[in-house]
Amino acid sequence: MSANPEFSDKAKRDFIWVERAKNGDEQAFNAILTNYKDSIYYLVLKMVKSKTDAEDLTMESFGKAFRNIEQYSPDYAFSTWLFRIASNNCIDFLRRQKVRKLNVISTSASESESSIGEVFAKEATMALKYDAPNPEENIIREQKHELLRQMVSNLKPRYRQLVEMRYFDEKSYEEIAQELDMPIGTVKAQLFRSRELLSEMLKRKNEHI
């Protein structure tokens, strides 16, 4: 497969990265992420108006792009394809937010029509469920946790260390960057790649069940 001859030098460079990424080249994935994460972030931030949501949606958009990278057609620039994915992802997010708000309003209206005793009883029941979880649920949760640890142990050492620090030790990005003497952008990029690898492992495991 060859790039569109009308591509700019930048688009041709992206095409090379994409072809390498399709073959599993992790450096190519990192190059794409590093080169476009700021542009995608500011596009997303302009749409959702929240820095926290923008960070999450930026990484989610890259995840969707990387999972579906085989679908990219070199008839048009990769950046165009990537920005469209990010934009559509934001639109979906905003729609979900709107639905949630409507549901909250609907629930609040419904509860206001209930007696105080009914609302209190509902909350008490939920509290009891939270304080005394079903033993079977605990077993399932522990099994899932153990499965995750097994999958993490199969990652390359640098990815395994990052995942353990972030999700098992619950360290912040800043703490990880400081302890490992790495740029925070590199920490985020490699954690993103780690999550992608874990997702691929889980998918393969489910296919064999």
Question: Which terms would index this structure?
Answer:
globular, mainly alpha, 209 residues, 9 helices
Short note summarizing the structure:
The chain is mostly helical and 209 residues long. It contains nine helices and no strands.
User: Could you list the spans in which at least 5 consecutive residues all have pLDDT below 50?
Assistant: 105-132
Helix content: over 70%
Secondary-structure element series: HHHHHHHHH
* Termini gap: 35 Å
Q: What is the overall number of helices?
A: 9
Mean pLDDT comes to 77
The number of strands is: 0
What fraction strand? Answer: under 5%
| Morphology | globular
Strand pairing plus helix content: what structural class?
mainly alpha
| Cα gyration radius (Å) | 22 Å
Main sheet characteristics: none
Give me the secondary-structure topology:
Blueprint: H1 9-22, H2 26-48, H3 51-67, H4 78-113, H5 116-131, H6 135-153, H7 157-168, H8 173-180, H9 184-207
Please tell me about this protein's structure:
The chain is mainly α. It is 81% helix and 0% strand. Helix 2 (26-48) crosses helix 4, helix 2 (26-48) packs across helix 9 (184-207) and helix 3 packs across helix 4. The longest helix is centred in the middle third of the chain and has 36 residues, at 78-113. It starts with 8 loop residues before the first helix and ends with a helix.
